[in-house]
Write a structure and sequence with these properties.
There is one protein chain. The chain is mainly alpha-helical. The chain has helices at 5-21, 33-55, 60-64, 72-90, 94-104, 110-117, 121-138, 141-147. It folds into two domains: 1-69, Rna Polymerase Sigma Factor, Chain: A, CATH 1.10.1740; 71-148, Winged helix-like DNA-binding domain superfamily/Winged helix DNA-binding domain (Arc Repressor Mutant, subunit A), CATH 1.10.10.10. The chain has eight helices and no strands. The two termini are 17 Å apart.
Length: 148
């Protein structure tokens, strides 16, 4: 999400600390520990991206340089994940699919999604929440973990 190796390491460290500090708040009845840790890490990443956006940080030069560390394996896995998830996204309404992708893939906030889709923030937030809940029920996590 952040496209910066050093920043990724910082986010991971912050996430590990947060997970360690909040481990007592984890409720196994609400979901798997791995999913909870992914949410914590994703939220830290989004917080970092929003902070950089507020500060006017721009990494235009690195955006123009091709990532030589990206392996063809990584691209193949990403392609396979998209193929695996696509049928489940097709089951969602078009606006819900778009809201979920804008949130999960592009890291936009509910407010930003609402602005982009010309709907109230709470509507965008509901679409994302319902879409993710539906995907969580429909997806078999074992299929995805085999690809990673």
């Amino acid at each position: 999400m952040v496209r910066n190796e050093q920043l990724t390491f910082d986010i991971m460290q912050q996430s590990y600390l947060k997970i360690w500090e909040k481990a007592g708040t984890y409720d196994p009845n609400k979901g798997k520990a791995f999913s909870w840790m992914l949410v914590v890490t994703r939220n830290k990443s989004l917080d970092c991206l929003r902070k950089l956006k507020r500060e006017g940080y721009s990494d235009e030069l690195t955006d123009l340089i091709e990532d030589e560390t990206a392996q063809s394996d990584d691209r193949a896995k990403a392609w396979m994940l998209r193929r695996l998830i696509a049928p489940y996204l097709d089951k969602l309404s078009p606006q819900t699919t778009q809201a979920v992708l804008l949130s999960a893939v592009h890291g936009l906030s509910s407010r930003e999604i609402g602005e982009r889709l010309n709907v109230p923030t709470n509507t965008a937030k509901s679409w994302v929440r319902r879409g993710l809940q539906k995907l969580r029920v429909d997806l078999d996590v074992r299929d995805i973990s085999e690809l990673i």
